[in-house]
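re: ur question from earlier - yeah i can do the single chain one, its not a big deal. heres the input i used so u can compare w yours
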Amino acid sequence: MERPRILIVEDESVIAMSIRQMLEAQGYQVIAAVPSGEQAVDLAVAERPDLILMDVVLKGEMDGTAAAERIRSIVDIPVVYLTAYADDETLRRARATAPFGYLIKPFEERELCSTIDMALYRAEMERREKERREWLNTAMNSIMDALVAADTSGRITFMNAAAEEIIGWNRHEAVGADAAEIFAIRSEAAPALVENPVRSVLRDRSAVALPDGTILITRSGEEVSIEGHAAPIIPEDGALIGAIVAFRDITLRKQAEAELQRHRRHLEELVQERTDELQRLLQYIETTERKAAEESLNTSMGAGGPATRSRDPGIITIDAEGEIVLINPAAEQLTGYRREEASGNPLQRIVTVVDRRTGMPVEDLLSTVRSGENGTFSDLALITRSGDARPILLASEPISGEDGSTIGLILSIHED
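and the output i got, formated as tokens:
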């Protein structure tokens, strides 16, 4: 085990020599014995001894307490004061430097060693506690959730960096303040503040979840949607020592959820509109097919009876985007495509039409029939799925919605 390293600061050379001999006899390592406060500061910073034996009253501009205070501001080294006499002011200043012990001159070797050992033990315990607190603070600040801790009186004892960012309070300003003042919350449904979870946890000694719709009021007055919970701090001995609240800002998530809900409602409206359009198209198809059948029947009866009845027209219904919605059986026979094959396809993919006079295809059939409104187109030939060309007459009629806009077209294909 490495021997403790001791710095002696004593302006009486005989006393300094005596202390050195006692320490070295007990196995301590004396790095130096200096007579002034200035030398003590320089050596303490340069050598970093484990402990300093400091005479309170030193000759020169810097006495023992001033030297100890200066050392303490630079490095963390325990100091044990040596004194034979001192006025009240000097002793008050000495106490303010938080020494690790006092030795009244003259003292025995056993008393010197026991005081040093106790001081070194206390310094080691404080060093470990400091490291533990620093580790805990680092761990707390590394947690994504915001953390606010309070003592049993409901006053803030700790806030991590995430809590500082959300609440807007610096932890040094917040420590000691009432938790209800720093962590002020209300319900989304009411403007009045609600009971602070720290108070309810301290009262009931049980964990609680923050209610849905909890709003945090920041230092600047901004309102932030949060979620989280609060719990009592109870060590192994079972005594309640405080409460801690863990929470997170969910403002962006709630905004995204609201936007998603808005899009969902808009989509439902679009689906309903589309459904209504399709229903109107189906009604129109049924009416058109019924009228075509009646006209065909009347024509056949006027020509001498059913034996001379002409073929039913092919009916193709397209929507406002130019995609096929439905085709009737006659159109299936004419084009060679079944209804389930044609539905949902662009018109041009299913229906290919050429000019009978030139043999040239009608490049944009949809635009052609749209431009004709209720027109009839002759001298055309339909190219079937098998490649046959059938002379046809093509008629189109727009389908109007309730607002007067065109929501589709009905195409009637008659073999010529």
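Residues 65 and 92 are 10 Å apart (CA to CA). not sure if urs matches, ping me
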